[in-house]
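ATP-dependent dethiobiotin synthetase BioD (Campylobacter estrildidarum), 190 aa
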Amino acid sequence: MQIYISSIHTDVGKTYLSARICKELGFDYFKLIQAGTPKDSDIIAQFSPKTKIFKEGIFLQTPVSPHKARTLEGLNYKAFDIALPQSDKLIIELAGGLFSPIDDEKTMIDFMQKFKRPTILVAKDYLGSINHTILSIETLKQKDIPILALVLKSEDNFSKDFIQKYTQFPIIEFDDKVCKKLSKIIKNLL
């Protein structure tokens, strides 16, 4: 099984969740596109040293949006030319949010739609996150991309309760038991 780790925004915990899943559930790791250092794969290696880590699809030295780094660095690649590694248990960590550009034309969600795999959507509670989370869920549904789970890091239950009630979508809290809960979902698909 290959699973995308997608998110509603940048810096919401995709890499941390990826490291936990790789370490606790024995998945390999692949970063679709890396902009800047330290590399997310370095963080995975630090927290999960036994994880097989594939070289990122695209590495950009400039820590900005990939489409901008691509231009600044004079690179010429197309989003759909990025090859996914062969692995039976692979976490594919995306960059930024669903509509973060990969090149001058395509975004993360375009890649997800072209190369269909289920996703775990990661969200973090901040002002505006309810809107971003619901929009992300609705967009994934519209694009027919299966959502295995919504993992939410929240300090209170107000956002969680509203999102769950509004979307009728179960939420897994980003806590010490997150992988145990995800394991049950993933095992049902294997």
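The two ends are 7 Å apart (CA to CA). The chain has a mean pLDDT of 92. ok done for today
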